[in-house]
# Entry
Amino acid sequence: MELAGKNIVLGVTGGIAAYKAAELVRLLVKDGATVQVAMTEAATRFVTPVTFQALSGKPVFSDQWDPRVANNMAHIDLSRQADALLVAPASADFLARLANGLADDLLTTMVLARDCPLLVAPAMNRQMWENPATRRNLATLRGDGVFVVGPACGDQACGETGPGRMLEAEEILAELIAHFQPKLLAGKRVLITAGPTFEAIDPVRGVTNLSSGKMGYAIARAAREAGAEVVLVSGPVCLPCPSGVTRIAVTSALQMRAAVLQRVAGNDVFVAVAAVADYRPAEFIARKIKKAAGSSAPSIELVENPDILGEVAALPAPPLCVGFAAESEKLAEYAERKRRSKNIPLIVGNLIQDGFGGEQNTLILFDDDGQQPLPPASKIDLARQLVGRIAVLLEKR
# Structure
């Protein structure tokens, strides 16, 4: 549970997206956080306080003069132990009042009196979101150190489609978790490859492997949490793109190579996690190969795929390159040989039997300082440790 021990004050303002805040409370509690909900009067018109009390296990506050607070200072008492104050949804009216320092109810007063970080998840009609007044208010809030989470673009309750839709609860949870991670890669640009490649033989068959892409996606998430601008070039996998990460979908090794070489300039780090197929069919057969009774199996000529990591490492001014070596035996020998042959500063090794395709893994980092084993852990925990090592190597560089 990544938010274990964290105290979160969740502010809920008036808007149809308030229904998503109920799911957000459930997810926060499930992830270990203690959640105190504070609502505006308008928010209670959409979802009742009873709902949030049932989900959080704590009484809900909406009145600045609530008699349950002995000193009548709920705006101070409720936020003093908070690790973060998160407002979701944050309506256009609430953002406007916040930008101008108004404090005429419990939630806005609490915001002014807080001594913890403030995150807001805007939710409004697309025209309200694009209105110049809203843009000015957001610029003011960002300048004041408020973290703006979202919004997304999509279908809205009014029947229109466009920007202004509040992020889903899972996305807001991910943003909150990311907020608490150290910004070791702030201002850096990171390019990552992940997943398998699929080398087509005919329209329905191909050469591929069992890579799930989970480790690469975890590294993309961890790098973005650490403050980096992240582009993820991904082979075909069934995984959601980490929040805030730009994903470029590819299928074959040649497509992945083209996508990487097109975007590698200006990046500080290149992490080659993808399990690129070593070979591809020399010729693509346009029609499905048919099996004929009594005939022998067809012969398929293979040619070697390009070495994407090797090409990037050989550039005149390459980014800090990180490779992966998944082996079934002799991990140290093969991983170190691969690192030296490609002339890269860091390679991450793992035995296939220790976590290939699973939720956990065991890794060993190989660099000029020797071997650094990372004990068994979830892939996101390992990814964060790897990001920490990358930050150290960038500093040395």
Remarks:
- The chain has a mean pLDDT of 89.
